[in-house]
Task: inverse folding
């Protein structure tokens, strides 16, 4: 799956709780997400699913074969 810059940034902000980061941090975040999501096969064109390794706390929003963002679960 492709990982957007926005999704990599949200991963750092929301999951890792990092408030400041560099372009290389974003690149490493994209690589980490690629490894986490390498075995994920979406069942629809646009939807969400639990972030592997963080299933209790975060959803991944995807469209097609691209990860768009990561959002926290509510409730």
Result:
């Amino acid at each position: 799956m492709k990982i957007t810059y926005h999704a990599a940034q949200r991963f750092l902000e929301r999951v890792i709780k990092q408030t400041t980061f560099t372009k290389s941090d974003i690149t490493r975040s994209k690589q980490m997400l690629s490894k986490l999501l390498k075995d994920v096969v979406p069942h629809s064109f646009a939807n969400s699913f639990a972030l592997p390794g963080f299933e209790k706390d975060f959803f991944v929003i995807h469209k097609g074969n691209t990860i768009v963002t990561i959002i926290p679960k509510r409730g």
